[in-house]
Amino acid sequence: MGPAGLRQDHAGAAAGEYSDVEFRAISAVLSGLLEVRQVLAEAAQRFAEGRRTVLFVDEVHRFNKSQQDAFLPHIERGTILFVGATTENPSFELNSALLSRCRVHVLEGVSPTDIVEALQRALGDRERGLGEEGIDVAPELLLEIATAADGDVRRALTLLEIAAELAADEGGRITPQTLTQVLADRTRRFDKGGEQFYDQISALHKSVRSSNPDAALYWLTRMLDGGCDPSYLARRLTRMAIEDIGLADPRAQSMALEAWDIYERLGSPEGELAFAQLVLYLASTAKSNAGYAAFNQAKADVRHSGTEEVPLHLRNVPTKLMKELGYGAEYQYDHDADGGIALHQTAFRMPWASGCITTRCRAAWKSS
């Protein structure tokens, strides 16, 4: 597994080349179950003749669960040496039965230095590259292209090719102005709805919770730069204001809704500043999950306590008969009690730590 642009198919081909076995490759995007069965039947025939087959499956996560199951008996019998490539997390996209029979190798993104070497080879390759074009580009500009590619060699080569086409009007010389034009709409690696998406939103949420405004602003910017839906960010930021700040600073919830509204009115990019200011505020203000924790405890109590009758002293007393039955008896009118609160019921544990209402709530519990 690994990000796009690493040529995982080359790793699969190498496995076949250095294992001295038959190598077959299929793509889960282009191949159906019929072709899979045919390839497996051929592998079974070779196995009967004493030869092994390396079966490389590109984009294996595109196969559904039943299609993935087709490989299991052949892996167990040793008919094939299964090699699958995916840009997704195998824990989420592969059958547990298939995953348990495989070893997972994680491929990292290519470093900018290595990408520069690939770009230099492309510039000098007269058969498959740009060697015939006579492109002139400064080393620092190649490094800028490599950095913008974000670990993806294919993206870097594409950017270089576009820059070379634009450089034709400049006598084959790639200038900083040319590169600015090429990189104007670049985006970082970001898979909407995939593992990286949830990793980044998790990083943003935890940075806010840990009161780290710099980190929170960074992850917000990463997600916006990658093309995350601003409405999703608005919902998550509002959730952070409710769950992690809550009653320690009730103003945070209003600010979250205001930032959401500002973005809806201004759009991008101006409205994104409202999100940036909100993130800085959420990460810097007091934190408390007391309301969140108390609500969860109350829900648990409701689930486990059954249908409790409303206590008599809390019931409505609209008739004389109800009063005679004890409805409303012994009710204490809070405004007449010391401190304005008459606490005599079971309390849910609320771990107040900080915030604007902490002192008042502590005083209320102590007086009960």
TrEMBL record:
Keyword ATP-binding: yes
GO biological process: DNA synthesis involved in DNA repair; DNA-templated DNA replication
Coiled-coil annotated residue ranges, if any: none
Pfam families assigned: AAA, AAA_assoc_2, MgsA_C
Domain of life: Bacteria
InterPro entries: AAA_assoc_2, AAA_ATPase_RarA/MGS1/WRNIP1, ATPase_AAA_core, DNA_pol3_clamp-load_cplx_C, MgsA_C, P-loop_NTPase
Swiss-Prot/TrEMBL keywords: ATP-binding, Nucleotide-binding
Family: Belongs to the AAA ATPase family. RarA/MGS1/WRNIP1 subfamily.
Name of the protein in question: Replication-associated recombination protein A
Source organism (scientific name): Stenotrophomonas maltophilia
The gene coding this protein: rarA
